[in-house]
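so im writing up the methods section and need the Branched-chain-amino-acid aminotransferase record in one place, dumping it here so i stop losing it
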Amino acid sequence: MSSAEDLEFKILAHPNPTSPERRAELIANPAFGRVSTDHMVMIRYKEGLGWHDAQVMPRGPLTLDPSAAVLHYAQEIFEGMKAFRTSDGGIAIFRPDANARRFRSSAERMAMPPLPEKLFIRAVDELVKADRDWVPEGENASLYIRPFMFANDAFLGVKPASEYLFLVIAAPVGAYFSSGAVTVWVSETYTRAAPGGTGAAKCGGNYAASLLAQAEAKENGCDQVVFLDAVNHRYIEEMGGMNIFFVFDDGSISTPALTGTILPGITRDSILTIAREKGMTVREEPYTVDQWLADAKSGRLTETFACGTAAAISPIGAVRTKAGEVKIPQAPGPVAMSLRETLIGVQRGRVKDTHGWEHRVV
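--- predicted struct ---
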């Protein structure tokens, strides 16, 4: 049997693709994740057979048995990445190899069969090629790509499933946040992850567990929630769906260290690399919420920003707790905007890529 990495993709023609006129209308100003492209990729896994039946097919509903393992035991993981129109008219995906590695790591943590990294990238490429006309133009526009895998084995026993589906879907998107700086709520009630848990895996359960805290943030007039560590309830970990950075008056920046409870963000890693290349002092270290508030009040802390695939870099303008609100001195600040300009410049081919981050598709 040939290697899974060498699977041939069967291309199924779409019987009724979106017209160019309708597509142009849909991608003009899409709400995040609400507009879908015409196609999807599907690859099946079965114990004893391995990965097989790779297809690029018309996007459509899935049929699941009511006892499918994902519905009962949440064996599910996903990734998020973007394809961009580049300055020379091409299309590139930002660091899909890093997404492929993290997807494999998430699968291993969730007792799921790892998808070969080369096959992961090929699957993403195939979808972007099929839906290349859905990649929008514009500074804040891109094609958001969502690879995911779940257990579709039909059984009710508590054990790793023996059958899985891997799919890739995509959606044209604009800016994640409408404009300006965001306000964040520090959750003193809920935690995102605990030592030994699944915090470093990109699995749906982590996000489901964050939704109540996110709702609490909304009730308090905030855009996002910030989680503290599960042991001491003092140390800042990450936001509901993004990593977080702090900028100080000496020009240095810091971010919470990866301890197994924080998702190792690919945008986070890119920012750390870019900052070091700009000559900044960079620290990955613990930082308490009390110190954050005190530093913001004293002026020692000048900027705070969030980062992730969806939002890229988003400045934080205020932090709220049950005790009140503290303004961040600069939002947006020059450090965050400089990092953002370089990051987006590499993604769109305007800044020289010295790390092989830009993956050309078509």
